[in-house]
Amino acid sequence: MDFMAGMAELALASRLRRLSDLYWQGVTATYRQTGLDFDVRWATIFVLISQHGPVAVMEIADRLGITHPAVIQVINELEKHGLIVSAKSEQDGRKRLLTLSEAGQAMLPKLQPLFDAFIAVNKSMLAHQTHNLLLSLQEMEAQLSDRSFFDRIQDQLTRNTNLL
């Protein structure tokens, strides 16, 4: 038996990380096999910019629900690889607006068949599950949006202390 699976709720974060790692390995191998110089970490921001650009850094962070520093790290890598360009906003000079560069635009049609394959494989796997993982993730994310995991732990520890 899988030890982490046996740990059930205690290993939830570790199992999600392991699942993520399995996905990232498959996607990375696919990019390499096709000869594309593209990193799995770039995908969500790259797609968001391609579909909604020009877009500001803070808007990306808000839309994806990730930190501003995490966005900055990825966009710096995308810029270094020549896939996006930034320009100061005419309305607010403090904002950097990001768009795909010519190289990014040229890479998009090469990436799209891979993205389509990722979607098809995920849909197939989800169709063979008793419970839809995407819906379960959405429910967990909504709960954590309402109240952080840390705050919930603190409440539980307080309840446990009061029971003694």
From TrEMBL:
This is MarR family winged helix-turn-helix transcriptional regulator. SMART domains: HTH_MARR (SM00347). CDD domains: HTH_ARSR. InterPro entries: ArsR-like_HTH (IPR011991), HTH_MarR-typ (IPR000835), MarR/SlyA-like (IPR039422), WH-like_DNA-bd_sf (IPR036388), WH_DNA-bd_sf (IPR036390). It comes from Spirosoma flavum. Coiled coil: none annotated. PROSITE patterns: HTH_MARR_2. Pfam families: MarR_2. Residues 9-146 form the HTH marR-type domain.
